[in-house]
Amino acid sequence: MFQINIKDVSTTYNGEDGCACGCGGTYATLVSGYRSGYFQQANPRTAKRRVNKVNKALAAGDPNVTVMDFGSEAMFSLTTGEDRVTRVYVDIEEAA
User: Largest CB tally within 10 Å, which of 19, 46, 59, 96?
Assistant: First the structure.
C-alpha cells in the first residue's frame, strides 16, 4: 500500500473541485515561500491533516482517490463530497 511521505509534499488544497486556483478553497504548505509567482504562508498543521486524510483513504482503497502525474509533480485528489476535494501535491524528484 502506497503512502504519501510528508517530506515529499509541496502543497495541499481543500475546496471546490475544478481549477483549484484558490478562489473556491484554500492551500496549505509545510514551509513558507513563493510558488507559481505568489507567496504562500506556511500552515504545516493543516497540510499534515490533509496528507493524513488522503493517506487514510489510500490505505482503505477508497475509490474516490485519483492520481495525476504532471511529470515533476503528482497530484493525489480525494473527492470528499459533492464538488469538494482534498488534494496533495507531491514533488516526484523529492520522492525518488
Answer: 46
